Amino acid sequence: MKILYVITSTHTGGAEKALLALVSQTVKKNTVKVVCLKPLGPVAEELIRCGAEVVSLSMTGMIPFGVVRKLEREIKSFQPDLVHAMLYRGIQFARLSCAGKGIKLISSPHFDLSKRNFFCRFIDKMLKNIDTLTVAESFSTARYLVKQQRYNKNKVFLLPNGADKSVFFRDDTLREKMRRQYHYQPENTVFISVARLAPEKNPITILQAFRNVYRVSPQARLVYVGEGIERGKLEDFIRRSGLNEAVLLAGEQPQINAWLNLADVFMLSSIEESLPLSLLEALQVGLPCIVSNVGDMPLWVKHGKNGFVVNSGDISLLSCFMTELLSPKKRKDMEDASVLISQQITDTPLQYQHLYQQVDLNSFHVKTDKLKQE
C-alpha cells in the first residue's frame, strides 16, 4: 500500500511524535511519503531515518499562496492508495487537494478544535465531508466533532493516543544516572513538564505555583523539557524571582524517557488539549501527575488517586497540590496507581495498520452511539 501523510509541521510536538511512531511501523510493509506544509523541523530527520520520503512545501506566513496546487502535484506524482492528514492546516489543505478526485482521505486532528476561532471552525465544518474517515485521538475530540461540528457519527472513529511501552517505562538505574548528571540530591523533589513553551500550554502557571512551593521548600526543583516562544517570558520570571538554581529550562530533548525517570511528579497546565502524549508517557514511567481540567486528561488522571486535576490558571490550588506531593509516601501511593492506569494505553500504530487495510478495502465500520447519547 502507498500511504501519503500530510502534516502542518515536523517540529517537535505531540502530533509530530505521533506521526513518527506511526510511520516507523507503517514503513515496514508500505511505501510511505510525508509532505510537510512548513519548512522541515527535527522530526523530519527521524522520519527519513525510518525510511520515509519527506518533502516540504515551504509554507510561510498567514496567507499560504500556492500550497494546494503544490500538494495536488505531490499527490498526483505519488499516486497514494490513501492520504492521512494531521493538524488543522494539514487537514484542510489535504481536503482541498483530494476533493473530487476519489482519493481515500483519513484525518486525525491532534488539536482542540473547540478553541479555534469561528472562521476556522466554519471552514472545518464546510470541508469535513471530504474525509473518508476521521480518527479522533481523544474522546473529547470525537464528541466535539460529532455534536458541535455535525460530523457523520458513522465516519468518526475513536482511537486514543498511545505510548510505546518499549520506550517509556520506569528505570531506576537511568533515574540515578540522570539525577547524578544534573546534580539532584535524594532530598530534591523534581517536578517536570514536557511540552512546547507555548501560550496554549500555559507554562507560566506552573512556574508561578512553583515559586510558592519553593518559598516553603527550598529543596524543590522544576524542569521544563521543550522549546517555544514563551522561553523569554519564563527566563525573565525565573530571574526576577531568584529561581535560577531551582528551575532548569532543558529545551528540546531526544530521550524523553530519561527525563521522565529523573523526575518525581509530572505537570501539564494547558488551557487546551486533546490527549497529550507526554501525559501517557509519564503514566507509563509511573509518575504522579498534576494536570489541568481540559481534554481527556481528567480521564487518565484520577483526582486524588494517581494525581490531581485543577482548573487551568488556578495558581493557589496548583501550589497546594504540588506541596502535597513533596511527601515521598504520598507520591509512592500515586506512582502505583499511575502504573496501573497506564496498562489501559493501547498500541495505536498497530491499530492504525488494521484501520488502513479496512479503509483500503472499504470494510471499516464505526460505532459512536455513546457520543450521540451524551
Short description, anyone?
With 374 residues, the chain is of the alpha/beta class.
Description:
A seven-stranded parallel beta sheet has the order 3-2-1-4-5-6-7, sandwiched between helices. Strands 10-9-8-11-12-13 form a six-stranded parallel beta sheet, sandwiched between helices. The protein is an alpha/beta fold. Helix 7 (172-181) packs across helix 10, helix 8 crosses helix 13 (315-324) and helix 11 (277-285) packs across helix 14. The model is unreliable at 368-374 (pLDDT under 50). The chain folds into two domains: 2-162 and 347-373, 3-Layer(aba) Sandwich (Rossmann fold); 172-342, Rossmann fold (3-Layer(aba) Sandwich). The chain is built from 16 helices and 13 strands.
Based on the model shown, name its key terms.
seven-stranded parallel sheet; 2 domains; 374 residues; alpha/beta; six-stranded parallel sheet; Rossmann fold
